[in-house]
Design goal:
about 70 residues; alpha+beta; 18034_t:CDS:1; single chain; globular; 3-stranded antiparallel β-sheet
Length: about 70
Amino acid sequence: MGLNRLDELSNKNAHVNKSREDIAQTFSCVGSVIEKCSLASKNSCAWREVEVRPRSKVWTSKKDINTY
């Protein structure tokens, strides 16, 4: 279910001119979905995995890494 939701977000935003920061906020990955997010964002820009709280991850661009 999580993977399908991720695909929906990816398809929805594919034709929308969004900044990398917006895209980073769109993809929120947990557990096994992290690998899917990694593949989805690999060619977009340099992504970093940031730990927010136990068992929860969000993706952010290198530009935003300093805010954490």
